[in-house]
Specification:
With about 500 residues, the chain is mostly helical. It folds into three domains: about 190 residues, MFS general substrate transporter like domains (Growth Hormone, Chain: A), CATH 1.20.1250.20; about 55 residues; about 230 residues, Growth Hormone, Chain: A, CATH 1.20.1250.20. α10 packs antiparallel against α11, α10 runs parallel beside α17 and α13 runs antiparallel to α14. The relative contact order is 0.12.
Amino acid sequence: MEATNTTPNRPPYGIIAVLMIGAFIAFLNNTLLNVALPSIMTDLDVETATVQWLTTGYMLVNGVLIPATAFLIEKYSVRRLFLVAMTLFTTGTIIAGMADVFPVLLSARMVQASGSAIMMPLLMNVMLVSFPVEKRGAAMGVFGLILMFAPAIGPTLSGWIIEHYDWRMLFHFITPIAATILLLGFFLLKDKKEKVVMQLDLLSLVLSTLGFGGLLYGFSSASNLGWDSPFVYGTIIIGAISLTVFIIRQSKLERPMLNFGVFKYPMFSLSSTITIVVNTAMFSGFLLLPIYVQTIRGISPFESGLMLLPGALLNAAMSPITGRLFDKIGGKILAVTGLAITTLVTYLFSQLTMETGYYYIMFLHAVRMFGMSMVFMPVSTNGLNQLPRRFYPHGTAMNNTLNQVSAAIGTALLITLMSIRQEQYTAEALGQLTGQPSADVQYQIMLEAMLGGINDTFFISTFITAIALILAFFMKRAKQAEDPLEEKQEQVEKKVKPELVKS
């Protein structure tokens, strides 16, 4: 099977199955580590700002490498890319499991990330090529199940492992599974690709690295270092300038590393915009709810994870159903319905109190995730469906890159907003007191100020999701656009065939 060839009569289910299992392990590994960060801090004697690099560094490597995957997918076979990706991921996992000092663990995580970055765009491209437009929703729904199920069970599984074993067991647990998948890929993947003469434009790679890497680092560091830090605004400025030059250069290259021509197709542009907006707002739930239940309500991390589990499982279970509905009714109805639910529940989360019930929060989160399940896959699939076949690698790479950047921006903006409002509420409360308040009074003021900041942040997130809801009304069921280059190639082939017959 070739990544750029015509859609086969029968999809290569064996290849897809191997790729999906590999992607599942990569996604699972990413969510497993979050719960283990406190244990790693204690064991390796590092600060919070330092240990966060295990997450930030992973995200940075993904953000830097994903834009280059469009070039890699066009040049190399699925087999070759998968084996390289899984080899990197497995090697990183083995080294991480043996790490005794933080620099070794961080390096291992980045090696893991370099493999993981190739996995998702590769799988999405194979899915697009393997299934016709009318069956693509169901196929992408199954892909969504894999994508959502790993984060659903990750925190709970990680919590159980950390309670009973050393944090290194998280990597020891993944290693044999990753090695088995690597062997399966070696023996089962047989696709070949004709040699493609393509050269990677090194200047584009440098500009892409500085552009996306600078934006990701700047926004992801803002919540820790503050917006007035030169490392924050400096890297954001460098990233923005580099990205601008990168985009200009891509428009002038005959074979760009990442083709921004995908934005000439209106449904792809609209789907990208909706995805960015929703990504910016959706992290309010993932970030703020654990802060609320653990810091303000005093609920344990394990119970906090259990509270979020039903919503994550519901989101995963809905993905195949949403995919089939997409094939029947299109993405607009699903997106509008899902965003309406998400907007309403996000507003309800802005009304939290000191006594809000545990199961009420669990219910609201589950309903919010139910709404989300009708948004991401239908919206992104509808946008990708409009692209001509040769744009698939660039469309998938662009989608994944925008997801990384918008998630970092959303996280930074929401945390900053919460911190600013918390400080304002604290100052107002202390200003109304006479004399020096006791430690208990100060602590109570801090909790109430934090609650006010969380509620205000959810309220702003409500408006952000409402913007996405309005944009969803402009969606139309996408049909694959005609490609002038493909038509020109077909005309050349038609002229050449009669001449070959005559000769």
